[in-house]
Amino acid sequence: MTAYDAVVLAGGAAKRLGGADKPGLSVGGRALLDRVLTACAGAATTVVVGGRRATARPVVWTREEPAGGGPLAALDAGVRHTTAGSVLVLSADLPFLAAPTVDALLDALARTGHDGVLCTDPDGRDQPLVAVYRAEPLRRELALLATEHGSLAGLPLRLLTAELDLARITTDPLASFDCDTWEDLAAARARIREHGSVLDEWITAVKDELGIELDVDTGVLLDLARDAAHGVARPAAPLTTFLVGYAAAKAGGEGKDVADAARRAAALANRWAAEAEASDGPKNDAG
């Protein structure tokens, strides 16, 4: 995978949110900014342009000049703290942005000679704050715009993208969904509770909260919980999964350790179930 730095724009007045601290608003129990930082965890350096706050992982902080100078001024401030040949640029209000979209952007940039690659939303609109740019042309055009206009403050992003040779990709249709209004925030909070995604969202939130980076097959753990509840007793399900986690940590704490401990515990639960079924079966009346 292409080495890259990330710049996350976390400023702005959030006027449609009544001036609320938008990056700090939560979706699924996690701040919007932290959700974005999780998606770009592979960055060598992550620069956040905005007010300092507690974050899920270490970042470099900076502010645009002047404060409130808009996205181009903020981008310029962030890029000044990067050194990689590619710069991932994201806004801080993307609740559904995930690592696969970041990987797709980086892969597309590596396969082409373009100055950058950006996502398009389901309506075909460019999303310059869900994009990756080559550092050299990005720095060049920012400098030229600053020279031409005397300052980058207040300038729209389209002045930058119009000067760059950009490729476009379509990824997860929700990747560029942003929370500009209270209605957007409510929709995001409702969506992550949908049946098909709530468990993945919850597991990701727990791992972030506990500082765990381990990839775990949740299907294996759910099967184990079912077997323990059915073969032993319902309260055995949460207790067994806890003990599996503890055993996996003692064994090394890798994904294979979880899988091995879960397999052994599931086999034990199945043996308990088999014994119970045998005991409840027809009695031998002979004799």
Poorly predicted ranges: none
Adjacency order of strands in the biggest sheet: 5-4-1-6-8-7-9
* Strand-pairing-aware structural class: alpha/beta
- H-E order: EEEHEEHEHEEHHEHHHHH
Mean pLDDT: 87
Number of helical stretches of at least 4 residues: 10
The count of strands amounts to 9
Please give the share of residues in helix. 40-55%
For the sheet with most strands, the description reads:
7 strands, mixed
Distance between the termini: 73 Å
Outline the structure in words.
With 287 residues, the chain is an alpha/beta fold. Helix content is 45%, strand content 14%. It contains 10 helices and 9 strands. The strands form 2 sheets. The protein has a 7-stranded mixed beta sheet, sandwiched between helices.
Quick overview of this protein structure:
Helices cover 45% and strands 14% of the residues. The protein has 287 residues and is α/β, with parallel strands linked by helices.
Layout: helices, strands, pairs:
Layout: E1 5-9, E2 26-27, E3 30-31, H1 32-39, E4 46-49, E5 60-62, H2 71-79, E6 86-91, H3 99-111, E7 116-120, E8 126-134, H4 135-149, H5 158-161, E9 166-169, H6 182-191, H7 198-210, H8 218-231, H9 236-251, H10 255-280
Parallel strand pairs: 1-4, 1-6, 4-5, 7-9
Antiparallel strand pairs: 2-3, 6-8, 7-8
Helix pairs in contact: 8-9, 8-10, 9-10
